[in-house]
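Assemble and predict.
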Amino acid sequence: MSELRTEELTINMGPQHPSTHGVLRLVLTLNGEIVTDVKPVLGYLHRCFEKHCEAMTYPQVVPYTDRMDYLNSMNNELAYVLAAEKLLGIQVPERVEYIRVIMCELQRIASHLVAIGTYGNDAGAFTPFLYCFMDREKVLELFEMVCGARLLYNYIWVGGLSHDITPEFVTKTKEFIKYFRPRIKQINNLLSYNKIFIERTAGIGVLPQDVAVNAGVSGPTLRGSGVKFDLRKDDKYSIYDRFDFDVCVGWGERGVVGDCWNRYIVRAYEMEQSLRIIEQAIDNIPEGDVQSAVPKRVKPVVGESYVRTESPKGELAYYIISDGSLNPYRIKARSPSFCNLSVINQISRGHMIADVVMILGSFDIVLGCIDR
Amino acid sequence: MGILNKLDISVEQFESGNIIITSMDKLLNWSRLSSMWQMFFGLACCAIEMMATSASHYDLDRFGIIPRPSPRHVDIILISGTVTLKMATRIKRLYDEMPAPKYILSMGSCANCGGPYWEHGYHVLKGIDRVIPVDVYVPGCPPRPEALLEGLIKLQDKIRNQSLAKHTA
Ligand code: SF4
């Protein structure tokens, strides 16, 4: 029998592909079913956020931060607004701080629900997707109640908020907390501890701690590797130091530390912690006017500021340079998804094609955040 | 007979069973509009609203819309989000790969006209209709799921009035 002629095969995954979570293109080099090289190609959703900001005034930038990571608008707004407030030297009222924290944690739950739902979808389980979106709809109803928008809010303003919350919002949020606790357990039973799902994810794409730290990986992806690093604890911004919550890490409950399953389960753990934070905050909101500190004209002095926050995807930071005019001279966004994606080549080499889908899904990337 | 009533047809009883009499157009249109398969394809923020629409709360399945990953299986693309110049060439290619009859629904301001990136976005296509023909435009940034559903119902109306005779692309 003559020898089989084998050669490496290069194929495109994306930009139109159901599991690339948007318009990402991966160029895969394959040896049979085994992946030998992965090269992400970006730019299909480049929206020139940074250049755009130069033409905007400071408050006008806020809606564009919404559109950067659209699953997670509140956290994006908060990060930018904190950077702008630092530049302006504004101290916002207590009430504003509390409401911001509540909104951001609700948004974290919504974002993680999408991450979990679509990850199940990647693995071939469609039902968890439906369950997760049902619960996410409940969070969106709360947002809609306060600011009228479902997805992109423009809610957190420089120096305050666009609308005050109503007593109804408080009761509805409490109802949501009561409703959602058992649901987390349900989702875990449905997906997280499902034998097939574990087989697909445990031991796949192990990300070692040193690689993760060196590549600037952050958020649940980093904590899945067992590194206890959460900016809400480690770089206390806003008023997160007043709340009691745990930083969840993957500890190898199933599989090995740093694999896809552990990265995934950190998100399920974190939803519980977010509920705890909301519970503590919702009863202690002080009275006050949410727009009392909103400046009439945002015109900071010459200078620069950098604020980093913990978004559901990881470390989200804004760097603003002001030249003393009404428009920012330069805004740089440090997006978590971009840095997280950078390790994909290292950890997918040697796996099957189907595993690349699971590895990519476990990062929970958003293309708006990567390309900006 | 609920569905058939809407079809404007007559059913006659013959010895060996029923015979349905209707026009070819009506039958084709009825089958087309009740199973519009959609491309599993999202571009930006609007795609999240599209996903929310197809999930449990709004449930696109009732319209017979199921997402399919390959352009060769689909009847309709929802252009959901910002179309960059780089992506526009790909969308054109996907469109060309679809079998006729094909329909395009442009969802959100970005796909309609460039949206918030219209003025300063050097990289954004100012409306997907510069590349491929569009059947229905849904405005909004992002459009609510209800608005998207309305757009799909409008598209169904359009299909209902199609005719084989005066074929328009
Ligand atoms: S229209 Fe608005 S929501 Fe839709 S993709 Fe464009 S910016 Fe995003």
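The domain at 9-371 of chain A is CATH 1.10.645.10 (Cytochrome-c3 Hydrogenase; chain B).
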